[in-house]
Specification:
alpha/beta; 2 domains; seven-stranded parallel β-sheet; 8 helices; 7 strands; about 15% strand; binds nicotinamide-adenine-dinucleotide
């Protein structure tokens, strides 16, 4: 049982892309704050350990396989969550993809793959989950954008930057249109965060610049004012706060968690 004193006691939270990285850390942090957690990823087997870790905390943890780039898959996912829990209180739209590439090397395939998950996926998960939140006049949506969407020069590629700018813009307008229904929508813009995604970018960058991965990591961190990359838990902590009653009057905002790289 969740302790009734916990800020998210018995809330139902959904996290996409929860098999690893920021999504997994966020699912666990929500569980530690008292929430039941539905952990979504492409492959149910890959995300099951996240749900099991939430269950080990004494909350309900449910693993679901779903592709957030596919509307039928999103609708099936929402139906299964409502069948199991009856409601959704918190959505963390976290699933995202990229690859490090120079502007002139990007392809139509890159556009379709990145926009399908980072743009279409975020929008339709938000819309379909908001449809369940509106009748209850309550809900919190947290979109994981990126400082890439605010002009960060070290972003992995131009299409990715555009997809994250789209997330920031969608966060603002959705916040306005869902505010009358008492639904808060905010975005978190992580800087470099130590995950499989950033590791792949780091390796490509090191190869491009002809240095070791260790040297590339040193240079990357030296360019961060606080001198360190994020751990996934640094993003999870803000996602939890945005889901708590203390954040009830915060909406439409995009918060940087980046060690001081970007100020706007
Ligand atoms: N790591 C960073 O440095 C960094 C920086 C800024 C923003 N972000 C953003 O944070 C989010 C999480 O990134 P991460 O670093 O933890 O990535 P990651 O690659 O470690 O994990 C992403 C997860 O999303 C899942 N996923 C991918 N496509 C999916 C789909 N169509 N449907 C369902 N799940 C899908 C993957 O299977 C994976 O488990 C992304 O939106 C990313 O753009 C990451």
């Amino acid at each position: 049982m969740a302790d009734a004193g916990q800020p998210l006691a018995d809330r139902v939270a959904v996290v996409t892309g929860a098999a690893r990285g920021i999504g997994r850390a966020t699912a666990l942090a929500l569980g530690k704050s008292g929430a039941h957690v539905v952990a979504i990823d492409l492959d149910e087997a890959a995300v099951k350990p996240t749900a099991d870790a939430v269950s080990a905390l004494g909350r309900k943890g449910l693993a679901l396989g779903a592709d957030v780039g596919d509307l039928r898959s999103i609708d099936g996912m929402v139906r299964r969550i409502i069948d199991s829990f009856g409601r959704i209180d918190v959505l963390v739209n976290n699933a995202g993809v990229t690859r490090r590439a120079y502007v002139m090397d990007l392809t139509e395939e890159d556009w379709d793959r990145i926009m399908r998950v980072n743009g279409k996926g975020v929008f339709f998960c938000l819309q379909r989950v908001a449809r369940e939140m509106i009748p209850r006049r309550s809900g919190v949506i947290v979109n994981i954008a990126s400082i890439a969407g605010k002009g960060y020069a070290g972003a992995s590629n131009v299409i990715y930057a555009g997809s994250k700018g789209a997330v920031i813009s969608m966060t603002r307008m959705a916040a306005l249109q869902l505010a009358p229904h008492n639904i808060n929508v905010n975005a978190i813009c992580p800087g470099t965060t130590v995950t499989a995604l950033s590791d792949a970018n780091l390796r490509t960058r090191a190869a491009d610049e002809g240095v070791t991965v260790e040297e590339m990591a040193r240079r990357r961190n030296a360019a961060i004012p606080l001198g360190r990359a994020n751990e996934p838990e640094d993003i999870a902590a803000l996602a939890v706060f945005l889901a708590t009653p203390g954040a009830r009057n915060i909406t439409g905002q995009s918060f940087n968690v980046d060690g001081g790289i970007i100020f706007d």
